[in-house]
Amino acid sequence: MTTSTAKLQELYNQQGFLSALSVLNETELREARCAFSELEKEFGEEYTQYSLHNVHRQYPWVSGLTKHPKIIQVMEAILGPDVILLDSRFICKYPTLKPDILEKEGENKPGLPYVAWHQDMRYWGIAGGPVLSVWLALDDSLQENGALQVIPGSHCAGMLPHRQASRPGNMLSVNQEIPEELVHADEAVLCPLLAGQMSIHDGLLVHASDANTSQKRRCGFVIRYVPTCAYPIQDADRPRKFAATELVCGTDHFKNFSNKTT
């Protein structure tokens, strides 16, 4: 392990996230954005906002993003040499307000899509190893269009209680949130990204994102990775299937997931 890699791992372990890591060059970014625009034309923005789930199984260009050498290099540094792609999803926050309405009501307008404070591990049903989430920006991700916010070091506190969110517009499919009295929001750090950059965060890190109050789309590709020693938790009340897992580097000696990862 190089010194730079060791420092990368140390910083990640300490704060639970890394941000503004360069991934896509100009050509790769242009090709990815053009390919995504074709999906928007085919399915419509209402669908591409959140429903492009595990399409790395369908589209080679999406599969290529999940195995991009610069992403895999970081995954190996953090998770070790044997890594499984667990899941992927495109998330888009489209402009939802006309400028005149935004000026009057701003980000407090009810129902604007946002992501509540939460921990990924609360609903992913994984044990035996960490879950690492990548946000790969296809658009600039800034404060005004709802960039990721994190609470540094919050992954060290373990799992926090979650409840049903009372504010409408939560994009989380299970509509969960951590009660505000348990979130140290004054310690929140914004993770702005330029298109082509990525942030990564631990599955226990407390994070959220505000509504897009700009006139610019915020599109990103979320990819989840786990070490091969991780395994799904059996839950009769909420059965989970991980049918889209793939081994992206190393060897899978455990075979903990339902489909073949070799």
Topology:
Blueprint: H1 3-15, E1 17-22, H2 26-43, H3 45-48, H4 60-66, H5 69-79, E2 83-93, H6 99-105, E3 115-118, H7 121-124, E4 126-127, E5 132-137, E6 148-150, E7 163-164, E8 176-177, E9 189-190, E10 197-202, E11 207-209, E12 218-227, E13 231-232, E14 246-249
Antiparallel strand pairs: 1-10, 2-12, 2-14, 3-11, 4-13, 5-10, 5-12, 6-9, 6-11, 7-8
Would you mind describing this structure in some detail?
Helix content is 24%, strand content 24%. The longest helix is centred in the first third of the chain and has 18 residues, at 26-43. The protein has seven helices and 14 strands. It has a six-stranded antiparallel sheet with strand order 1-10-5-12-2-14. The radius of gyration is 18 Å and the shape is globular.
